[in-house]
Amino acid sequence: MTDQQLTTSLRNALERVALGKRVQLGPQAGGLTFAVLAGMLEKRGLVRTVRHRDGTRTYKLTGEGRDCLAGMRRERFGAP
C-alpha cells in the first residue's frame, strides 16, 4: 500500500466517522477494514469510541479529528 492509498483510506474513515452512527453501522460500513482504520485513528486521538445501550460501538470525531479532517478537505489530501 502506498502512502497516497493509506492517506486516502484514513481520510475516508474520518469522513465515515463524521457522517455518524447510521453510516458506520450500515450495510456498506466497510467491516473489518473500517474498524482497523478507526482503531488507528483512535490511537492518534482523532476519534473516540462511543458505546451504545444496544451493545454497538461507533466512533466520534474529537476536536483534533475535526481539525484534521477540515485540513485534509482544504488541502485535498487523500482526494482521488
Structure, described:
This protein is of the alpha+beta class and 80 residues long. It has a single domain (3-75), classed as Arc Repressor Mutant, subunit A (Orthogonal Bundle). The chain has helices at 3-19, 21-25, 31-43, 63-75, and strands at 47-51, 57-61. The chain has a two-stranded antiparallel ribbon with strand order 1-2. Helix 1 crosses helix 3 and helix 1 (3-19) crosses helix 4 (63-75). The radius of gyration is 12 Å and the shape is globular. The relative contact order is 0.20.
The tally of strands reads 2
What fold name stands as the CATH topology? Arc Repressor Mutant, subunit A
Major sheet characteristics: 2 strands, antiparallel
The top-level CATH class is Mainly Alpha
- Residue windows where pLDDT falls under 50 for at least 5 positions: none
Order of helices and strands: HHHEEH
Q: What is the CATH superfamily label?
A: Winged helix-like DNA-binding domain superfamily/Winged helix DNA-binding domain
Report strand order across the widest sheet: 1-2
CATH architecture: Orthogonal Bundle
Sheet/helix structural class: alpha+beta
Helix content: 55-70%
